Structures are given as structure tokens and as C-alpha cells.
Amino acid sequence: FGAMLVDSTTRWAGGTIERCLGVGVIVEGGSLQAKQLDVRQTWAGELGMAVLAYGMIIAGDATATTEQLSVSEVAGFGIVQDHANATHEKLQVKDNENVGLWLQASSATSSQPALSIDTSSAITNNKGGGIFALASGGITISDTVISNSREKPIVSASGRAAVTMADGLQVRISRARYSNRGSRASRPIARCQ
Questions:
Q1: Tens digit of pLDDT for each residue in 36-81?
Q2: Which ranges of the chain have pLDDT less than 70?
Q3: What is this structure's pTM?
Q4: What is the DSSP letter of 42?
Q5: In terms of DSSP bridges, do strands 77-82 and 101-104 run parallel, antiparallel, or are they unpaired?
Q6: Phi-psi sector, 156: left (phi>0), alpha (psi -120 to 50), beta
Q7: C-alpha dihedral over 39, 76, 42, 92, to 10 degrees?
Q8: Bridge pairing between strands 175-179 and 187-191
Q9: Cβ distance 20 to 32 under 8 Å?
Q10: Are 76 and 44 spatial neighbours (Cβ–Cβ below 8 Å)?
Q11: Beta 187-191 vs 144-147: how paired, if at all?
Q12: Which residues face 118 on adjacent strands?
């Protein structure tokens, strides 16, 4: 790990986490407020070690608020969010060997959406897709570029088969809103029950 934050309240201003084995930053419970944080070059296991790579994991009912977070060149997933809430401004997730941002089992609370990405954000050049949301609701994405997703086999939720994907945004069993700056209305892009 580069940094492991468990059930803590953390404010982080500036810095770089790089060349870590496994996970760059994990936030398990508690909260993180981060500004100008760069997480890059997180590696998967080597020399026979079975270690997956993640730039950042936000999990266990954690709440994360970031501004100018960059997650890049990860040998696996850029950001994984599981049972947590996150708000990102000026987010950059790029050049990762798996999905840029994987969201699962996360729901909005009365005070925060499950996931909010806003203000000049970009999710680019990730294998398998830009954003994948599974069994999550309360998602807001605006003023964000999702581009150049590259094909990669992704194991299905049932674990039975790999499907080659390169979607910019894929939402399953959730609610999401898309808004375009300058537009007065938001229109739903996914409604599943």
C-alpha cells in the first residue's frame, strides 16, 4: 500500500503516491478530503505473487471528496468504489490497464450522491471502459470527457465468462443522471429496476 486510511478522518493537500505494489490509496470507512493528489504506477504482483492492482479503493461506507485527483498508469483498475460515496472535481483517470472507475453497491445518502463527477474531469485511455457502475444509484456526471476506452476482456458479474468491453460508460441496475453544462435540464440515461 501507498496509504491505508481505516476509519479515519483525513485531509490531504498535495502529494504523489507512486510505484506501489497492489493499492496506491485505500479508504476503508471514515472520510477523505483530498486536493491535488497524484496516484500513479501501481503495480500488480510479480515474482509469482497473486496481487491485483488498484490506484484507489474507496469502500466500507467511506466518504471521499476530491479536487484535482489524478489516477494513472495503474496495472489494474484506476478507482474502485464499493459501498461508499464520492464526489470528484477536476478528476483525471487515465492510461490504466483496467476500467478507469468501477462503482458497485453504492447508494446516495440524504447529504451526498453515491458518485458525483464534475468540473473539467476526464476519464481517458483505460482498458475495458471509462466508468462501470453496478448495482448503484445516485450517480451524477457532468462536464466530463470519457474517451478512448480500449478493449479488454472483463469477467462477468456471475464469474462465468469474460466479455470483451470498451464502453465509455456502462450502468447496470442503477439510476444515473447526465447533464451538459449550459443545459437547463438533466435527462436520465439509465433507469433500471
A1: 999 999 998 765 566 789 999 999 999 999 999 999 999 999 999 9
A2: 46-50, 155-161, 172-193
A3: 0.84
A4: P
A5: parallel
A6: beta
A7: -20
A8: antiparallel
A9: no
A10: yes
A11: unpaired
A12: 89
